[in-house]
From TrEMBL, chain A:
Keywords: Membrane, Transmembrane, Transmembrane helix. This is Membrane protein. PANTHER family: UPF0749 PROTEIN RV1825, UPF0749 PROTEIN YLXX. The chain crosses the membrane at residues 81-100. InterPro entries: DUF881. Residues 50-60 have a biased composition (Basic and acidic residues). It comes from Micromonospora gifhornensis. It comes from the Bacteria. Belongs to the UPF0749 family.
From TrEMBL, chain B:
The chain crosses the membrane at residues 27-44, 56-74, 80-103. Keywords: Cell membrane, Membrane, Transmembrane, Transmembrane helix. InterPro entries: DUF1290. It is found in: Cell membrane. Belongs to the sbp family. It comes from Micromonospora maris. Its main location: membrane. One of its GO terms (cellular component) is plasma membrane. This is Small basic protein. It is a multi-pass membrane protein. The lineage of its organism: Bacteria, Bacillati, Actinomycetota, Actinomycetes, Micromonosporales.
Length: 306, 110
């Protein structure tokens, strides 16, 4: 094998000499000659043919007998060298195609130069930093908004609470809670407005938070700061312009014990009414309901300050 | 003729199978291809000069590829892979140019 290789392979002109003589009489031409014309034809069509003819004729004369050997040699020569070259070239073509395809498919970054890659990386880092800043800014504003929301809710709660308190104090909201029911039963003399006013003042002094007064016909009037009491006819009472007939009941929300003590002090409301022949019945109430409402005056002149 | 057919067959095979190049081979494949091209052009030139040698072609083909890959590998290990592969490509390019010039002179006599 190797021998033949070296012989045939040492150069182009030489194989033409030795090989031709060996084998090809006329028929073996296809084997050794088939590759030859193909390989030779491109190089020099004008110069080559005469050379080819000369050795071929020489071969005819010299090796007419050793026909099989020539065929075998041609096969082997053809086989080993050409097959090897073919395999290598197939490999080359394969790799070439693969490489071309690879390069063309991901030419975006893989084919980029180092400076470009560095620049791209730098851009990405700058963008990263910018986006991080954006994130922190947005988180900060989110936190602010959330705390603002919380503050607003707290303020709203506080305002609602104050509005409720003020509404109860101003008599615009119904209220309930522990308290007393104070009933005035007239004796010989009707219950005068002064006694009722005394009782109201006493209750206020004892910490009453909400009061209403109701007459015998279940009409109720909320007692607020501006409520006034007047003596009416036939023992009736005019409260805030509304006539109430006896017996009167003041429903009050506050600390029951304190208010009871306040009413019962010597020379106080109970004693005064008793002097007039009347009677004051004080009852504790677990839940005293002050449901009558006072219609607030619309303010014409007073304006809040600030 | 067979060589050209083999080359075309390889190209078709490569396009048809469409394999992905392993990452480990990625830096060496282009250099190996250029080295093989150098060997092929050298072979064509030798054929035209009528000093073509099968064995020499095979050996030079394989050794070209191996040496090119080895140089690049060495460069990678030394930290100068990029420059060294550029150098290899330049050298092989010069050789290819020389070979192509010789082939051109043969074919066109110019």
């Amino acid at each position: 094998m190797t021998d033949e290789h070296t012989e045939t392979g040492t150069g182009w002109p030489q194989p033409a000499g030795p090989v031709r003589p060996d084998g090809p009489a006329g028929e073996p031409d296809p084997r050794p000659e088939a590759p030859d014309p193909d390989e030779l034809s491109p190089l020099s069509p004008q110069g080559r043919p005469p050379q080819d003819d000369a050795p071929a004729k020489g071969g005819d004369e010299s090796a007419a007998g050793s026909f099989a050997a020539a065929v075998a040699a041609g096969w082997r020569r053809f086989g080993s060298a050409t097959v090897m070259i073919s395999v290598l070239l197939v490999l080359l073509g394969f790799t070439l195609a693969v490489q071309l395809k690879t390069t063309s498919t991901d030419s975006s970054l893989a084919a980029a130069r180092q400076e470009d890659l560095v620049r791209i990386l730098y851009d990405l880092e700058a963008r990263d930093v910018r986006l991080r800043q954006d994130i922190s800014t947005l988180e900060e504003s989110q936190r602010q908004l959330r705390s603002g929301e919380q503050g607003r809710q707290a303020a709203l709660q506080e305002a609602t609470r104050r509005a409720d308190e003020l509404g109860i104090l101003a008599g615009t909201l119904p209220a309930r809670g522990p308290g007393l029911a104070v009933r005035f039963q007239a004796g010989a003399k009707p219950i005068s407005a002064i006694r009722v006013l005394d009782a109201v003042q006493e209750l206020r002094g004892a910490g009453a938070e909400a009061m209403q007064i109701s007459g015998g016909d279940r009409a109720s009037v909320r007692i607020v700061a501006s409520t006034y009491f007047l003596d009416g006819e036939n023992g009736s009472l005019i409260v805030d312009g509304r006539p109430l007939s006896g017996p009167f009941t003041i429903t009050v929300i506050g600390d029951p014990a304190t208010m009871r003590t306040g009413l019962n002090i010597p020379g106080g409301v109970v004693a005064s009414v008793a002097q007039d022949g009347g009677n004051v019945i004080v009852e504790d109430r677990e839940v005293a309901e002050v449901s009558a409402l006072h219609v607030p005056r619309t303010l014409e002149h007073a304006r809040p300050v600030g | 003729m067979i060589a050209v057919l083999a080359l075309l067959a390889g190209v078709v095979l490569g396009l048809w199978l469409d394999p992905t190049v392993p990452a480990a081979l990625q830096p060496y494949l282009p250099i190996a291809v250029v080295a093989a091209l150098d060997a092929v052009f050298g072979g064509v030139r030798a054929k035209l000069d009528r000093i073509f040698d099968d064995k020499q072609f095979v050996v030079s083909f394989i050794s070209n590829v191996l040496v090119a890959a080895l140089i690049v590998y060495l460069g990678d290990q030394l930290g100068v892979g990029g420059q060294l592969s550029t150098g290899v490509v330049v050298v092989l390019g010069v050789r290819i140019f020389g070979n192509v010039a010789a082939i051109r002179r043969h074919l066109f006599r110019a």
